[in-house]
């Protein structure tokens, strides 16, 4: 099985690219989805976050107020590091379980959508390659404000600045999807990239068949001599 990292800056278009990858038969695991899962009420990540930040960040329902928590962490590096220490180990557990399941199923390629791959992730040594979804820092800010209409320009910029510069991420990627223009062009780039990601992969079923064939040949050869 081949693991591919999918990353980029906030509001760069990773989710959209992930959707196109799925359309082309690539299994995608989302760290953002895992992050939401581990802070659900009663989960270990939820308990760790409450222990660190207190019940003031809870909604009346008992769920974590993501807006309030976001305000705390995006404007304070110490709080951000504390939150990462609370939830990143739990996210890693969820992703590992999914990877193992895909391995058992015989999935040939899995893309792991990791927003903070370069900032705080230790999965890099296990990745065959890294795909960076790129747009300019100005586009990040504008798209973030469009997506969250309660953000001021300063708040949106703070969230962009909390991550590694998108230009640096672009330099480090093995493959870059330029999402600065029309989405149809982004889709074309993804479609062209998928065959390269799959190049050289031997399906697990073929490996099993080859192994059985080798075993049969060995047994026959042993009986002959």
Overall 3D form: globular
CA gyration radius, whole angstroms? 21 Å
Largest sheet: 5 strands, parallel
Strand content: 5-15%
Quick description:
The protein has 225 residues and is an alpha/beta fold. It has helices spanning 14-23, 31-38, 44-53, 66-74, 77-105, 117-120, 137-147, 153-161, 166-172, 183-198, 204-224, and strands spanning 2-8, 27-30, 109-113, 129-134, 175-178. The protein has a five-stranded parallel beta sheet, sandwiched between helices.
Characteristic key phrases:
225 residues; Rossmann fold; 5-stranded parallel beta sheet; 11 helices; alpha/beta
Structural write-up:
This protein is α/β, with parallel strands linked by helices and 225 residues long. It has a single domain, classed as Rossmann fold (3-Layer(aba) Sandwich), CATH 3.40.50.300. The protein is 60% helix and 12% strand. α2 packs across α5, α3 packs antiparallel against α5 and α7 packs across α8. The longest helix has 29 residues.
Topology:
Blueprint: E1 2-8, H1 14-23, E2 27-30, H2 31-38, H3 44-53, H4 66-74, H5 77-105, E3 109-113, H6 117-120, E4 129-134, H7 137-147, H8 153-161, H9 166-172, E5 175-178, H10 183-198, H11 204-224
Parallel strand pairs: 1-3, 1-4, 2-3, 4-5
